[in-house]
Amino acid sequence: xxxxxxxxxxxxxxxxxxxxxxxxxxxxxxxxxxxxxxxxxxxxxxxxxxxxxxxxxxxxxxxxxxxxxxxxxxxxxxxxxxxxxxxxxxxxxxxxxxxxxxxxxxxxxxxxxxxxxxxxxxxxxxxxxxxxxxxxxxxxxxxxxxxxxxxxxxxxxxxxxxxxxxxxxxxxxxxxxxxxxxxxxxxxxxxxxxxxxxxxxxxxxxxxxxxxxxxxxxxxxxxxxxxxxxxxxxxxxxxxxxxxxxxxxxxxxxxxxxxxxxxxxxxxxxxxxxxxxxxxxxxxxxxxxxxxxxxxxxxxxxxxxxxxxxxxxxxxxxxxx
Amino acid sequence: xxxxxxxxxxxxxxxxxxxxxxxxxxxxxxxxxxxxxxxxxxxxxxxxxxxxxxxxxxxxxxxxxxxxxxxxxxxxxxxxxxxxxxxxxxxxxxxxxxxxxxxxxxxxxxxxxxxxxxxxxxxxxxxxxxxxxxxxxxxxxxxxxxxxxxxxxxxxxxxxxxxxxxxxxxxxxxxxxxxxxxxxxxxxxxxxxxxxxxxxxxxxxxxxxxxxxxxxxxxxxxxxxxxxxxxxxxxxxxxxxxxxxxxxxxxxxxxxxxxxxxxxxxxxxxxxxxxxxxxxxxxxxxxxxxxx
Lengths: 321, 292
Fold this sequence. Notes:
Chain B: One of its GO terms (biological process) is transmembrane transport. The structure holds two protein chains of two kinds. Chain A is an all-alpha fold. Chain A has helices at residues 2-29, 31-54, 67-70, 77-84, 87-119, 123-138, 141-152, 157-164, 181-206, 210-218, 223-248, 255-261, 267-270, 273-283, 287-316. In chain A, helix 5 packs parallel to helix 9, helix 6 packs across helix 9 and helix 9 crosses helix 11 (223-248). In chain B, helix 4 (69-101) crosses helix 13 (226-235) and helix 11 runs antiparallel to helix 14 (248-291).
């Protein structure tokens, strides 16, 4: 009995060897493809993965002269310092609120805008509207912030308008008052990205089979019924994927606009994790501490993304991976 | 198929049209206001009299901006960053996307995972910043060209496009004795013009508008891109530097119209080409959407 078993083993070993030599052969025949890949893989190693390794300075007392490897370990000291600091809850709250409000207002608005555009029967007007709505997406952030600063100042058009229709009796210094910061942030974000975000929904909408609508009309469905029974179910997968992505970046609020618009007077509501990391790390060279804060942010984001993805896959069978 | 519309439907349709026209006004007006103000009399702007048409035509602000050496140097730098940066982006993205689109490449899903992971997790700003310093790129043009040289998302878009090219085409070229570089250059790329156009546009607009890396990595003012100079003028209000020998009150007023003029100068190039390129951009987003 032992003999055939052994024979089977050697055979399978032979097979395995053959298979691996086949794959080796295939790899050799594709050697130019690997050569092609090399620069791109090197890019990811040097500019994406090396900083990931470098992030361990969050657990060290980093000294630029000793480098990442040579600096002494301090365990979770930097994290503890952050969690215990007066800034922790303020930063967490601001970061979360700023992106939560963006999600709450911009996400449904983009969908609604796409749906309204889709209902538009005038083709010329539709394409004009699309062109116009994408435009703000291409204007640089610096210019947008310059415009925000100019429009919201006491003599700017927003104050003039509000004074003109009598909503306020004296000009508001929007950018100096902390209570206005989130409104400005989300409002300008809406203006910038509404049209651009709607592209993906319009693409999904155009992918719905027109015969479904014809059948619905024959069955006597009105526009509202068509919307709830055909259009919305048709774009649901797209909506969910975008929602997962958005939830996954809930603690990744766009710091660039904040850096351009905030000032020490509005830190109370405007300072977020990433702007704090920028100030403490780049400007004050407090490397280990701000790397710890940044790592905390990355880990939370990644966890949120994985969770959102899992929940979506379980409940709706839509997922990123 | 002609369908008779009911009265409520007609009401909805007309409200929809009116609402969307109002939306397009909201999208356009801020830019129109900037354009109009840049040509208006400085006193009229300060008094808040400008709303829809220029008041008292005046192009002095443009003259002052064009006489400013900072703007010209920065314009030149931005062109360097856009051209060199986009070239590096395209080469690296293509070289990554093509091999990964070949189904017979051993280990491609592993390499793909290695790339995709970077879309969801990163070391953070500080390690990236220290990395650039360690590599000796700090305060050189390379600091704006190399970090971010490949976008994982764009690579996926491009790979998806390459996968749609029939295998038989590539196989037959192989049988004819062409090696992989030749196949990429002679067969795959000529068939990929639409996606190449889209990538060029995305990357180029990204470089044109980029400022944060320049802010943290550059010290030498001679290397500054346009956006960084714009930041000084628009955000930090240093337009006053352009004016010498004018009274304080006048300085304040003219600096306002200088802001508007610089906005126009920095934005017009993008907005001018934009209508011609729009369809490519939209196509790019859609190719990206298909992947998901």
